[in-house]
Automatic annotation (TrEMBL), chains A, B:
PANTHER family: ADP-RIBOSE PYROPHOSPHATASE, SLR1690 PROTEIN. This is NUDIX domain-containing protein. Gene3D superfamilies: Nucleoside Triphosphate Pyrophosphohydrolase, Winged helix-like DNA-binding domain superfamily/Winged helix DNA-binding domain. It comes from the Bacteria. It comes from Flavobacterium rhizophilum. Residues 3-134 form the Nudix hydrolase domain. InterPro entries: NUDIX_hydrolase-like_dom_sf, NUDIX_hydrolase_dom, WH-like_DNA-bd_sf, WH_DNA-bd_sf, WHD_NrtR.
DNA sequence: ACAAAAGTGTTGACAATACACCCATGT
DNA sequence: ACATGGGTGTATTGTCAACACTTTTGT
């Protein structure tokens, strides 16, 4: 017999920086310390449903990109007994969300990757694992789109990749590469109120993506 | 409070076919039916250790390639109560192993992928998920080597990829591609007792692989 | 001689990379 | 005028894919 919890690593992207949503514990000895949002699985609920429910409670959103990462279960990861946790990995479009603090969290805050504090239990390990997962995932499928607004420019997309992968890219080559994939739909719309030439906006086309994945394709940068 | 188990999908490769090791249940109502080898996690043991221990008990080997897959936890996956299972994924060099039946298994047998019967609980789902994982994994890192003997020919390696990915490849192009990666060490040895021109044997070089992964490289076929 | 796989070579199409350059817009 | 990003073009080099061909060995 063991206890099982869920912990979620929620990524967002804002002004060129990759961020993670953390919550401050509202109860117990760990009060005031930061950690990953999480909770328990209910008796008649699948693990995926539990993760969706927890995320909806915290962010008010229910159509989030969500993937199970893996289970973390070092015997001493939790001081008060054996607790195995199942890590989840979420990508959200930050501007859609009104983050509200959940029931056991007195506060929730976005942290830039470089500014992440020491977290409770093994949450830093889970976070590190997620980051690595994100870097791999983003090279295999266009999951990165889940971090951007519906409409975005090619430059914004490139900056997202640069930030996640920690590399610099060539504007012109990135443009050719991504457009050749035919995954983006060019809109009849341009940026507004920018202090430079306005760029065309693009949308991600889910249907084309699904067609391509059936055939098998790769998304290397 | 929940119960947690571990279930392992063990892949082997024999005479050009991909195979999975299944065990026959020795107890209870399900006696005689086939399933994935598995067991319980001990109180003071990490999840990975538990998986290694279970595999060692079953196969007599303790240096197996092993990866956690993910947790499976549909509320009704197990009929007698809520049990979450953590799936593991193992690759073994078949010729090294003397498979011995474990304590709760009266028999263990290798099944070709195409011949897998209906398994207990959700084990077919876990197996399907593993297969998909293997197909992805093999494209990202040279994990396939764990299924081959220490010394192998380029043709055997190609046949392994063809079988796993379900595609046909060009001998000449495969050869160039794999040799260009510099992951293989050419040995001063040749095949024996084959009814055709004997091929050079190669070895996989773990150190070169580690150097390359740090730099980031990809392994597309 | 034949079968079966080993192993080499060639070619054309396509993609990656680096870099130069002009365009539009707000300050 | 200048900074910032938008957007186009090009030349070089590398890789992929198809396939034709020669070599070696056992039956």
């Amino acid at each position: 017999m063991n206890s099982i919890t869920i912990d979620c690593v929620i990524f967002g992207f804002d002004k060129g920086s990759l961020e993670v949503l953390l919550v401050q514990h509202g109860e117990g000895i760990r009060k005031g310390e930061w950690g990953l949002p999480g909770g328990w699985i209910r008796e008649r609920e699948s693990i995926d449903n539990a993760a969706h429910r927890l995320l909806a409670d915290l962010t008010g959103l229910d159509s989030i990109y969500l993937e199970q990462l893996k289970a973390f279960g070092e015997p001493d990861r939790f001081p008060l007994g054996r607790v195995i946790t199942i890590g989840y990995f979420a990508l959200i479009k930050k501007e859609d969300y009104d983050v509200r603090a959940g029931f056991t969290a007195s506060d929730a805050k976005w942290y830039k990757i470089a500014d992440i504090p020491k977290l409770i239990y093994d949450h830093n390990d889970i976070l590190d694992y997620s980051l690595e997962h994100l870097r791999n995932r983003v090279r295999q499928a266009p999951v990165g789109f889940n971090l951007l607004p519906e409409k975005f420019t090619l430059f914004e997309l490139m900056k997202l990749y640069e930030e996640i992968l920690g590399i610099e890219m060539d504007k012109s080559n990135f443009r050719r590469k991504i457009l050749r994939m035919k995954l983006l739909v060019e809109l009849d719309e341009k940026q507004k109120d920018v202090s430079h030439r306005a760029a065309k906006l693009y949308e991600f086309d889910q249907k084309i993506y699904e067609k391509l994945t059936k055939k098998g394709f790769n998304f290397e940068f």
